[in-house]
Please model this.
Amino acid sequence: MQPEEVSITVNGRPVRVAAGTSIAAALLMAGEPSRFSVTGEARAPLCGMGICMECRVTVNGVPHRRSCLLTCASDMEVVSE
Ligand code: FES
Model:
């Protein structure tokens, strides 16, 4: 049986989301960017289907993960890039 909610951290902040929530959605709900452009602008998920790469984040120490394609799991650590 799947839990109703999971807890993750986004840039060190605890965030609780419904089970099955994508990391991209969790980032938007937390008001956190996915990454920063080379000029320092905050970026956010755009296409939501794995094409644009704007949603790249580091997940559990692994960089360049597409957050729109990943589901939140308990104790995941998500860091903006
Ligand atoms: S939002 Fe475009 S690849 Fe994830």
User: Anything to note?
Assistant: DSSP finds one helix and seven strands in the chain.
